[in-house]
Amino acid sequence: MKFCPRCSLTLTTKEDGGRERLACPDAGGCGFIDFGDFSIGVGAVVFDDDRALLVQRGWEPNRGHWQIPGGYAEHDENIAESVEREVLEESGITAKLRDAVGFRHSIGGGIGGPSTNIYIVFRLDAEPGEPSFDDDEIIGAGFFSLDEMANMEGVQGLSRWAIELALRAPHGSGMQAVDGPGSGRAGWTLFGLEPGGLL
Ligand SMILES: [Zn+2]
To answer: What is the pTM of this model?
Structure first.
């Protein structure tokens, strides 16, 4: 990045938070500082009883491999909507978010691609329906038990980890959307542990 994305001035450097960062020289108050490139991914363990939803990749890399549905959260999208949307787009299944079971943090340039990424795995409950897919980006979709997955080729390791974690953790033990400071503010969701929730 060479020019300010807000006002197009040539960026200079500025000390902020203990580091030299690219920053806009506009003394008038543009205020842009380059803090780096971050993204949020969402993954969905969608349950139908004790079976979980897997989709089969149609695109490289790893065409033919099976994984839980998921994708990127849009910057202006409620995260519950992101994960429910990705499930519907990839599998045709309508599912409702239950709770969050874990996340992976990866530093930019590594497994998460060019940006530093947080990939949050949620548990969702499927509404009745048969999986469907576009036969392009996704070339297969279905609900499978862990026993069935053990005999499938190309089940992504991170997906299997997420499914096992989600199956072991008691119902209601994950972080759920809760009321708290800022509740009701547009675009604001608070997730927290619910002691004595739905056990
Ligand atoms: Zn600027």
So the answer is: 0.89
